[in-house]
Every structure is written in C-alpha cells, then in structure tokens.
Amino acid sequence: MNFITSSYNRAIAIVSAPWVESLMLLFVRISLAGIFWRSGRTKVDEGSWLTISDTTKFLFQEDYKNVPLPPELGAYMSTYAEHFFPILLVIGLFTRLSALALVGMTMVIQIFVFPEAWWSVHMIWIALALTLIVRGGGQFSIDAILTRQK
C-alpha cells in the first residue's frame, strides 16, 4: 500500500509541476485560438488577409440578423476579433483579456445566433477560455516574460 501511495504522490508531483501546467496552458491557448482563427478565415475572401467576403456580409444581414449590431459592423468586428485575439492567445500576450473577449463573442453567438449549441460546442469554448482567464497564459507566454519579477 505504501508503494502505491508513494507512486501516486510522485505522479501527482510530476503532473503538478509548473512547467507541465504551462505546457497545458499553451495547448489550451492554441486550441482556443485555432477554433476562432479558422472561423475568422472563413469570413474573408480567399487569398486575402482581411477582405470581408460578400458571403460574410450576407450572413450578417440574413442569418445573423438577431445580433444587436448593424450587420456590416458585426461582420467586420467578428472577423477582426477572430483574427486578432487568436494571435494574442498563441503568443500569450494579454491572455486573460483575449480569452475574456472570446467569452463575449461566444455568448453573443450562443444567445443570438446558435442558441441550441451550448452543450455541443459553446460550453467547451467557454471552459477553455475560463481556464485561461483563471490561470493566465503560463510560463511559455509573453505575459510571463513581461510580469517576471527582477
């Protein structure tokens, strides 16, 4: 029994190490960023960096018309946010603020666009974002470099 307890305690010590948590937070940052980045890329003309597609403008006028923003503004804001915040997450700059912004976007999508998607999708996005809001970007982030004590 002592062997099992000591083995368990060693395993817990390894997975609780700061570098392991930071590696996990990097994975969470990349995962959440990837979700929004891929969505943002569907909103622009193929081969362009940030030229909003006509399809995106149409979607915001028709399918996303319940969003309480003018359609053109909503199309631009969501497209830019889905490019800007994922970049910040991947590099770990303003991680908590970026994750909070993506929580806001997710809730707008949940409430006004796809209210049936909570259990299948949005809850997972929120869980990833809340992890980053609570824990930050970890040691492998620009946030950590900027906040290190001398």
The total strand number stands at: 0
Number of helices: 7
> How are helices and strands ordered from N to C?
HHHHHHH
Q: How many domains, in number, for the residues? A: 1
Q: What would you report as the Rg, rounded to the nearest angstrom?
A: 19 Å
Q: Between the first and last Cα atoms, what is the distance in angstroms? A: 45 Å
Based on secondary structure, the structural category is mainly alpha
- Sheet of most strands: none
What's the average pLDDT?
96
Range of helix content: over 70%
- Shape from CA axes? elongated
Strand content: under 5%
Question: Which consecutive residue ranges, at least 5 long each, have pLDDT under 50?
Answer: none
How would you describe this protein?
With 150 residues, the chain is an all-alpha fold. The protein has one domain. The protein is built from 7 helices and no strands. Helix 3 (54-61) packs across helix 4 and helix 5 packs antiparallel against helix 6. 23% of the residues are buried. The mean pLDDT is 96.
In short:
This protein is mainly α and 150 residues long. It has one domain (17-147). Helix content is 73%, strand content 0%.
Write the layout of secondary structure elements.
Elements: H1 2-15, H2 18-41, H3 54-61, H4 71-91, H5 95-113, H6 118-135, H7 142-147
Helix pairs in contact: 2-4, 2-6, 3-4, 4-5, 5-6
Question: What keywords describe this structure?
Answer:
mainly alpha
